[in-house]
Structure formats: C-alpha cells, structure tokens
C-alpha cells in the first residue's frame, strides 16, 4: 500500500508562510484568508484536486475574491427605478461626493470657528434651494422612516385622518397603515375606496375632541391607480380644512419630484404640494429624485423643527455618505434617472439598431417603465433588441451581469438605462452568449423579474 496522498496536503502554516499567498492576501481580512485555505485543503481531502494544487487553488481563489459580493450590473430591463437593482443609480457627481465623504469630512464642524455645526447643513441648504417653497428640511434614512417620524412627532398617540383610497401596500408587504399604527397613532379612515370628498374629511375633523393631537395625511397611491368613478380631495382644499382646525397637513408624495414634470403629469411634486398649503411633504431620495436611499422631509420651519427635536430623529439620522450624495444629486446636473426617463429618442433608436445589427437580431418596439412606484401606467416608448429567451440566464452570469426583460418567449435587451459607454461591453457579452447558445442550445430557466 502506498502513502495516503492526503498526507501531502500542505498545512495551514506552510500556506500562510508562502510569499505569494501573503502578497495576494495582504488586502484581505485574516478570517477570509483562513477560510480560503480551509476550503482548498478540504477539496484536496475530498480528492477533487491534487495536494500539489492546493497552493494554486488558494492563489486563484484569493485573486477572485471581491471585498463586497454585491456586483455592479447592467440594467437592460428598461425599468428606470428598478427596486431589485437598487432603485436610482447615482450621478457621476454623487458618486464622487460619496467617495470624498468616505474619509474624515466636516459633516458637523464649522471649519472657520472650529466649533460644532448643524449636521449636514450643506445638504439641507441644497434641498431648500432646489425647493424654494420649503422653509426647512430634514433628511432621514428612507421614505418609510420619514413618514414614521412625521406621525410620531406631530401626532404621538393621537389621530391620523386619511382617505380609504390611500391605505396602500407598496412592495414586499410594506403597508402604510401598519407603519402608521406601529408608531402608536390610530387611523381614522374617511371616504370610500374610490371616492373621498372634502365633506368626509370635514366630518372626521368635527368629531375630533378639542385639542386632539392629530394630522390630515394625504398619500400618493404610487404603484396603483383607481380609474373610473373616482374623486379625491386636492392638497389646496385639504390645507384649508386642516388650517380651520389648527392641524397640520402632511403629504406623502412618494417619488420625490421637486417640481412638476410634464413627462409624468400624474406624479405629485414637492414644490406644488407646499405651495398649495401642505405643512410637510415627504418623499424618497432614490426614486424620481435620482439620489441615494433617503427620506426627505420639507415644510414649514415650525413643523420641521418639531420633527428634528423628536428622539426618533436621532434614530433615523442619515450618515455622511447619504448627505453627500443627496447634495451632489441636487447640484450635479442631470441624473441618470432623468436621462433614462427622457432619452434622446433618435440616439436610443440608433444605439439599439447598431447592437441588433452586430448580433444579427431584430429591433422591436418596447415600452420602458418608471418603476419604483412611479407612473404605474405611463409607458416610456422605446425599443429593444429581441433575443431568444434562453439568452437571459447566461447574460445574467456575464461579467458585468446584464439583466434583461423576459416577455413571452423572448429576452428583450433595452438600452434606455444602459450608459452609452457600456454599449461595447453589452455587444461583446451578448455576442458571446448567442454564439454559445448556437453551439449548445440548452434551454435556460426563465428569468425571474421583479420590479
Ligand atoms: C416608496 C414610498 C414610500 C416608502 O419610501 P421608501 O424610501 O421606500 O422607504 C412611502 N410612501 C409612498 C407614497 C411611497 O411611494
């Protein structure tokens, strides 16, 4: 009987002492290196590799290791604010600002006096300049946090008056009424699912006891639309009613448009809501605003300062990276979201045709979508390159991964949200995938799509 080959598997100390292993693992944490070594030794014990291959295996695993497993992907779905792909991609200016803010920054220091300053003062200033009707602003971690803070600070265990048509569930089981009630407030529903009138709000306001802690809340239904025999009460009318009772009007606009956007006529905007008399408006930073995940609260000085003083404000405080990205999103020109919503149609068509020609595929009309709960029935007319459905799965495993839209038996590649500089990479990857499918046409599982 010969010697057990497993005795030739190099020990951990030997591998750790190897100069090449030391060089390759220098930027990695100790436990990562230990795990890579352990796994290579295990493979040799199971005789999947020879003992002599262990060091090479360790080196190649170290070379492949990524400090963050989340990978940049190419969004070829045509869905602009794609929840599963991280909603809004940041602008070039915002990315640079995040990188700068990653070190020490004067987020809470006045450099002239050397004293402590209001945290994130410059991001707040940028918001106010971008939305002039607001007197003050506060930035928290996301839209849901902003709403919870508003209710907790303005109402406490009191009453939130809201239309039955606005008691929405948004995504992944997130239900606004449950969030509101979780703060200790209770909800008084007014109107019906499809129709709510000013009189309904007025009656609920009349029934409140004197000096009740309460607010009127108007919520943008976001990703669903009631059509047909409907009616809702405008912000201006609600503002008049609320003021008569000395109560604040809060508008949860959802998507974060700063001003009216003609391309999305149904989408509420923050400036109009404030001009129409809302005391506070709420929006997400990473939907139509095109910035980082954040909850934006803008309104009257008195309302915002009540929020800022509430203990929960500290629990929902944003980090410096978010503050940097919000500010640069507002000051750094057109965002990728805006560019994808309003592309140069001729240019987009030309890019699509060029890609289709390179691949020997067809161009088909394809409507992109806003996504992220914005403009649910607004098509964004455009085009896609039509590939066999079996291309979708291999495209997702390319480097960088390319995520497409699956429709019927087709994989549709839409360039609306693809930076033009990525076109050559997309052409090369898709060409490779199609060539591979011709050689080995095994049907891939259908791609899961969730926006
Ligand atoms: C998206 C949305 C929210 C939640 O915002 P997040 O930033 O996702 O937490 C709340 N209200 C409305 C109306 C929304 O559309």
Automatic annotation (TrEMBL):
Its EC number is 2.9.1.1. It is found in: Cytoplasm. Transmembrane segments: none annotated. InterPro entries: PyrdxlP-dep_Trfase (IPR015424), PyrdxlP-dep_Trfase_major (IPR015421), SelA-like (IPR018319), SelA_trans (IPR004534), SelA_trans_N_dom (IPR025862). The keyword Cytoplasm applies. GO terms for cellular component: cytoplasm. Keywords: Cytoplasm, Protein biosynthesis, Pyridoxal phosphate, Selenium, Transferase. The modification N6-(pyridoxal phosphate)lysine is found at residue 287. Pfam families: Se-cys_synth_N, SelA. This is L-seryl-tRNA(Sec) selenium transferase. It comes from Candidatus Nesterenkonia stercoripullorum.
């Amino acid at each position: 009987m010969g010697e057990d080959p497993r005795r030739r598997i190099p020990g951990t100390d030997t591998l750790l002492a190897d100069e090449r292993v030391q060089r390759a693992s220098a930027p990695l944490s100790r436990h990562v290196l230990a795990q890579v070594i352990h796994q290579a030794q295990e493979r040799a014990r199971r005789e999947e590799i020879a003992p002599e291959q262990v060091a090479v295996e360790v080196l190649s695993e170290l070379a492949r290791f990524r400090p963050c497993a989340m990978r940049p992907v190419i969004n070829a779905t045509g869905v602009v604010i794609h929840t599963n792909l991280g909603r809004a991609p940041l602008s070039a200016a915002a990315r640079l600002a995040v990188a700068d803010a990653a070190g020490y920054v004067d987020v809470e220091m006045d450099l002239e006096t050397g004293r402590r300053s209001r945290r994130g003062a410059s991001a707040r200033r940028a918001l106010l300049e971008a939305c002039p009707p607001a007197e003050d602003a506060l930035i928290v971690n996301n839209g849901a946090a902003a709403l919870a803070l508003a209710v907790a600070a303005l109402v406490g265990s009191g009453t939130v008056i809201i239309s039955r048509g606005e008691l929405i569930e948004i995504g992944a089981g997130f239900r606004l009424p449950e969030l509101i009630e979780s703060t200790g407030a209770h909800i008084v529903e007014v109107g019906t699912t499809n129709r709510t009138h000013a009189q309904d709000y007025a009656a609920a306001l009349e029934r409140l006891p004197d000096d009740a802690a309460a607010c009127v809340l108007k919520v943008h239904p976001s990703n669903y639309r009631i059509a047909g025999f409907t009616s809702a009460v405008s912000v201006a009318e609600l503002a008049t009613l609320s003021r008569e009772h000395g109560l604040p009007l809060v508008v949860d606009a959802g998507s974060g448009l700063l001003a009216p956007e003609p391309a999305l006529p149904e989408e509420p905007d923050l400036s109009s809501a404030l001009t129409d008399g809302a005391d506070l408006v709420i929006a997400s930073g990473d939907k139509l605003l095109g910035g980082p995940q954040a909850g934006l609260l803008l309104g009257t000085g008195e309302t915002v300062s009540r929020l800022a003083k509430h203990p929960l404000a500290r629990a929902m405080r944003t980090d410096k990276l978010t503050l940097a990205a919000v500010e640069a999103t507002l000051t750094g020109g057109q965002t990728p979201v805006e560019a994808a919503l309003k592309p140069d149609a001729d240019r987009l068509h030309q890019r699509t045709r060029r890609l289709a020609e390179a691949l020997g595929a067809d161009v088909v009309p394809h409507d992109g979508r806003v996504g992220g709960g914005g403009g649910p029935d607004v098509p964004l007319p455009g085009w896609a390159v039509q590939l066999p459905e079996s291309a979708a799965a291999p495209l997702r495993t390319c480097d960088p991964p390319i995520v497409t839209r699956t429709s019927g038996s087709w994989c549709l590649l839409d360039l609306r949200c693809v930076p033009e500089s990525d076109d050559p990479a997309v052409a090369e990857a898709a060409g490779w995938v199609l060539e591979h499918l011709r050689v080995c046409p095994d049907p891939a599982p259908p791609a899961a799509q969730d926006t």
